[in-house]
């Protein structure tokens, strides 16, 4: 039986607003096995991104727990959670989130540099080559197209050898053709690296390529 | 994060231009402060050196008793240079057929005289002179120009001083410490100290002034003073003099110059601090996304904190080193620029300016740049997926607290004056409050007015309204910068005017003394005929206070608690006069002036003298005038303008009180340099009178004032540069937001002209409002500074209210245009993609 790498119990997230307390997630349970690809679907405002943030340890729930590879990240300090993210987690964002003052290669090197790996450049070059950008290593993000920026972002995410890759609408800012190519690349890399993939998307076709789908509506999972 | 990564981050941020503004602000802070302090330090040293030449030494120990050898030995052992002088009045006789004689003031000097300043001599009376390093040889004397006609002698003749015959070898035209005390000076005869015993003029009871001149570094001089303080005080025979005590007008010019230069420096520090804060804020804002991404990649809050602290440290070290180099360069440039006006050999600077520059850089960074960068560690990693998330910044208390602490440390350290710091801070707080309220009201009013305006102005006013909080802050900052510039211009103008007024054109530059009562009428006519003289001759006699309300003066003096407050001694012999009218430049502050025909024995006392010794209206003073007792009641207390260079007296009697006392008369008058020959005519006609030339002293004071003025103008220029940087930093702070908005407007069909016009209008309104705010602030601050720090009277300036806002609009539009030029010319697609 496969072991869950990611487990969330009764996750509740509420935020204070001018109109009172707004509950974004209301008792969500999640269990994702190692190597599995799970799509989280739902309409705008259903709580997808909030759930992704909690599962990845970017934020803390109002109540409930999250275990990542057996460690309860919800009980950790921000300092410990950051270290856990560095060890286990990779991200691909809708808006790419490359650091614009760094070249493509430097962006990809960043996770390894933060971990103080002795040879950050080697792995970074390899991953850039893998995403087809070997010739663009010295280019800055503003000199790259949207699709190219997302490929750099994927190289960066996989270069940190994550156990779990969180992808937030990875094709949301791209045209259909480019989006499809990026999606192909994402699933190829995921397979090659045996990564667990948690994918937040609106896109049904993208979701259908995952092993399992989970739909959210008004902060709850819909069966 | 490791050091290598930090260095790479700094290098990458530098490459991307992220750090340039912050580094520029830091360079300006360090550069301005070190340039100002280096220049001021050297100038002050030079000014002080120049001023000490008025004493002919750094300090002088003077007294009516011989200076003990132990004082001399101690000074030498302390490493001080010493020189002795001895002054006494004496009759000299010309060894010529005419055989004239004249009462002169002899000064006998040792070989090392003077320790500061130079003697000037010539080979003919009343002709061009030259400096000399020497003093008269043994057996020789140097005479004042005016003694040549009055004694009827030429170079090479002999004069008799006491029992000794001395050869006239030079014309003495100027000696550094001549201005010391005007009324002890007759025409000067300079001779060697070693020749004095042979003259046998020093007898018990002779009026002799002994002076030990001292020169050396301040610490040694202060130690020496401390060592002998008790002995000076106990004997009551010796007085310790520095330039500030011995020549009040130069002392106060120096004090004001220092205050002003410091104020200029303070403003530069504050402006630079604001520029650092603004650029650090912008830098931090531009790193919100970076930090959130770094955190998703595993960077911990601690690593973020130390990482950015490291960035600041690297920046600080680079900024301080480059800033000090820049400051040194600027200061050398200034020295070069003003080379013709500055002393040829400016003393080398002390280390203080460099320390101050370096500390300014780091304190600026810690106080102004650290808070926004520290806040970066609190950025939530969730921002990477939700960009709209608010950022928890450092609490206002910490941000403003640190800023205020930093400013305080810098201000106190820089000015060495809690009082000046207090006023700068109180002004700052008041200004922030007043500026905030006015700026808010102006923006609200502007929005209402904008509803009626065309699209260009409406767009501009809507822009201002939309960023109201930022704009109130910007109006405050622009306002503050403009206010500081206005203050500087105003204070500078007031100071210079005040200085000019202090020694007005055509102020009297010659004193005539020893005029007998039957010569008064003729002298008055002679002066009126040949000069613009419109004064009167005052009778003058010497006398001292013997008792106050029946209490012997020495007892009264001992009892008085104000004994060591620096007031002139009560028991000393003084010049006295009588008059029926209050002299010009004197103002009554207590009691009333006596009727011109009063038969009462009344006396009028100068304010400082009266208050220093607790004398008031109604007190009865007993005087001893050469053995004659005179009792008079204090009728009033008055102020005297000592700098007016007119005959001024501590004590003035009613005519009835001194009617029977024999007196000689004196007055002062102005004589232009080209009419100096007139002195010859007077002295030939009235050989017994004494003429004292003070034009040299006045020239020296004017020279100092003009140098100080140049320094002040220069500092205005540097502060202006710092102010401009604040404006640029402030515009940069809102640049990203503006770019985005304008790209959107252009995408929606707005022309480049509309954007440029609305931007110009926005900056013009911002500048105009800032100008209004600045004028209010400047008026308040200038009033406080003028009345509290510089001791000047307030002057209304209506033109100010027009010029302030116009300058504001002009500066902000110009700097704003330069700062946003690229914003207008960049295609909207590029901007939208970059954002």
Task: Write a structural description.
The complex is a heterodimer of chains A (223) and B (835). In chain A, 35% of the residues lie in helices and 29% in strands. Chain A has 223 residues and is α/β, with parallel strands linked by helices. A six-stranded mixed β-sheet of chain A has the order 6-7-8-3-9-10. In chain A, strands 2-1-4-5 form a four-stranded antiparallel β-sheet, covered by helices on one side. In chain A, β1 and β2 form a beta hairpin. In chain A, α3 crosses α4 and α4 crosses α5. Chain A is globular, with a radius of gyration of 17 Å. Chain B is of the alpha+beta class. In chain B, 54% of the residues lie in helices and 17% in strands. Chain B contains 25 helices and 22 strands. A six-stranded mixed beta barrel of chain B has the order 2-3-9-6-8-7. A six-stranded mixed beta barrel of chain B has the order 13-15-20-17-19-18. In chain B, a hairpin with a 2-residue loop joins β18 and β19. In chain B, α10 packs antiparallel against α11 and α11 packs antiparallel against α12. Chain B starts with a helix and ends with a helix. About 1% of the residues of chain B have low confidence. At the A-B interface, α1, α2 and α3 of A face α1, α9 and α10 of B.
């Amino acid at each position: 039986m496969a072991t869950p790498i990611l487990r969330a119990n009764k996750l509740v997230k509420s935020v204070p607003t001018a109109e009172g307390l707004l509950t974004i997630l209301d008792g969500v349970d999640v269990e994702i096995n190692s190597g599995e690809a799970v799509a989280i679907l739902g309409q705008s405002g259903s709580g997808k991104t909030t759930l992704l943030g909690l599962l990845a340890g970017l934020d803390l729930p109002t109540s409930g727990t999250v275990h990542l590879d057996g460690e309860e990240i919800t009980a950790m300090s921000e300092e410990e959670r950051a270290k856990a993210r560095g060890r286990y987690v990779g991200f691909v964002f809708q808006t790419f989130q490359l650091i614009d003052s760094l070249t493509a290669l430097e962006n990809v090197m960043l996770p390894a540099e933060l971990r103080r790996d002795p040879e950050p450049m080697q792995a970074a070059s390899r991953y850039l080559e893998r995403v087809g950008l070997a010739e663009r290593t010295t280019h800055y993000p503003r000199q790259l197209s949207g699709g190219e920026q997302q490929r750099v972002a994927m190289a960066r995410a996989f270069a940190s050898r994550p156990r779990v890759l969180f992808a937030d609408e990875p094709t949301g800012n791209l045209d259909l053709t480019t989006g499809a190519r990026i999606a192909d690349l994402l699933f190829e890399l995921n397979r090659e690296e045996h990564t667990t993939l948690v994918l937040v998307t609106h896109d049904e076709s993208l979701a259908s390529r995952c092993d399992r789908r989970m739909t959210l509506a008004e902060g709850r999972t819909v069966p | 994060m490791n050091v290598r990564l930090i260095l790479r981050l700094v290098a990458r941020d530098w490459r991307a231009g992220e750090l340039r503004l912050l580094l520029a602000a830091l360079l300006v802070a360090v550069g301005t402060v070190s340039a100002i302090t280096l220049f001021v330090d050297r100038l002050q040293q030079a000014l002080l050196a120049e001023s000490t030449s008025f004493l002919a030494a750094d300090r002088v120990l003077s007294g009516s008793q011989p200076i003990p050898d132990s004082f001399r030995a101690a000074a030498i052992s302390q490493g001080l240079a010493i020189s002795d002088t001895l002054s006494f009045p004496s009759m000299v006789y010309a060894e010529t057929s005419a055989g004239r004689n004249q009462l002169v003031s002899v000064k006998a000097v040792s070989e090392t005289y003077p320790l500061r300043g130079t003697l000037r001599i010539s080979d003919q009376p009343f002709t061009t002179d030259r400096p000399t390093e020497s003093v008269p040889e043994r057996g020789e004397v140097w005479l004042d120009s005016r003694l040549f006609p009055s004694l009827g002698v030429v170079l090479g003749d002999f004069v008799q001083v006491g029992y000794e015959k001395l050869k006239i070898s030079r014309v003495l035209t100027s000696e550094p410490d001549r201005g010391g005390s005007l009324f002890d000076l007759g025409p000067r005869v300079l001779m060697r100290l070693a020749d004095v015993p042979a003259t046998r003029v020093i007898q018990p009871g002779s009026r002799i002034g002994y002076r030990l001149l001292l020169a050396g570094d301040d610490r040694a001089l202060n130690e020496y003073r401390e060592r002998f303080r008790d002995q000076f005080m106990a004997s009551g025979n010796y007085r310790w003099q520095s330039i500030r005590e011995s020549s009040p007008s130069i002392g106060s010019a120096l004090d004001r110059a220092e205050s002003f230069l410091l104020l200029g420096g303070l403003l530069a520090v504050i402006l630079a601090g604001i520029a650092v804060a603004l650029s650090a804020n912008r830098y931090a804002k531009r790193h919100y996304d970076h930090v959130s991404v770094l955190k998703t990649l595993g960077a911990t809050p601690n690593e973020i904190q130390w990482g950015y602290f490291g960035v600041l440290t690297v920046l600080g070290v680079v900024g301080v080193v480059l800033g000090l180099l820049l400051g040194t360069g600027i200061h050398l440039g200034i020295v070069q620029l003003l080379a013709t006006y500055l002393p040829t050999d400016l003393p080398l600077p002390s280390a203080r300016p460099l320390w101050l520059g370096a500390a300014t850089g780091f304190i600026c960074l810690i106080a102004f740049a650290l808070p926004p960068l520290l806040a970066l560690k609190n950025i939530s990693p969730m921002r990477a997926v939700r960009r709209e998330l608010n950022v928890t910044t450092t609490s206002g208390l910490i941000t403003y607290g640190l800023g205020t602490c930093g400013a305080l440390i810098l201000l106190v350290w820089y000015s060495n004056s809690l009082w000046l710091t207090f006023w700068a801070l109180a002004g700052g707080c008041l200004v922030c409050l007043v500026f905030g309220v006015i700026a808010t009201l102006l923006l609200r009013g502007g929005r209402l007015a904008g509803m009626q305006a065309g699209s260009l102005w409406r767009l501009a006013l809507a822009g201002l309204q939309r960023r109201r909080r930022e704009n109130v802050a910007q109006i405050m900052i622009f306002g503050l910068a403009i206010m500081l510039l206005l203050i500087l211009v105003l204070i500078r103008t007031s100071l210079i005017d005040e200085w000019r007024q202090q020694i007005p054109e055509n102020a009297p530059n010659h004193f005539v003394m020893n005029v007998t009562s039957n010569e008064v009428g003729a002298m008055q006519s002679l002066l009126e005929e040949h000069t613009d003289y419109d004064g009167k001759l005052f009778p003058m006699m010497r006398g001292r206070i013997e008792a106050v309300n029946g209490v012997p003066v020495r007892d009264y003096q001992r009892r008085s608690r104000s004994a060591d407050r620096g007031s002139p001694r009560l028991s000393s012999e003084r010049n006295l006069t009588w008059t029926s009218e209050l002299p010009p430049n004197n103002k009554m502050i207590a009691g009333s002036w006596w009727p011109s025909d009063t038969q009462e024995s009344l006396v009028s006392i100068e304010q400082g003298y009266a208050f220093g010794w607790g004398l008031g209206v109604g007190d009865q003073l007993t005087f001893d005038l050469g053995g004659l007792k005179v009792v008079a009641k204090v009728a009033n207390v008055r102020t005297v303008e000592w700098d007016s260079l007119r005959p001024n007296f501590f004590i003035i009697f009613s005519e009835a009180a001194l009617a029977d006392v024999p007196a000689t008369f004196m007055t002062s008058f102005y004589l232009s340099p080209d009419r100096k020959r007139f002195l010859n005519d007077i002295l030939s006609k009235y050989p017994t009178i004494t003429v004292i030339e003070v034009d040299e002293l006045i020239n020296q004071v004017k020279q100092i004032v003009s140098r100080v003025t140049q320094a002040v103008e220069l500092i205005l220029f540097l502060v202006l540069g710092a102010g401009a940087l604040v404006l640029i930093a402030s515009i940069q702070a809102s640049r990203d937001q503006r770019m985005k908005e304008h790209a959107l407007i252009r995408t929606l069909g707005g022309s480049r002209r509309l954007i440029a016009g609305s931007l110009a209008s926005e900056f013009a309104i911002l500048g105009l409002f800032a100008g209004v705010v600045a004028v209010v602030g400047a008026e308040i601050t200038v009033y406080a500074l003028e009345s509290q720090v510089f001791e000047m009277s307030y002057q209304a300036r209506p033109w100010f209210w027009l010029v302030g806002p116009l300058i504001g609009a002009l500066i902000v539009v110009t700097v704003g245009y330069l700062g946003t030029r690229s914003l207008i010319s960049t295609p909207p697609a590029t901007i939208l993609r970059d954002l």
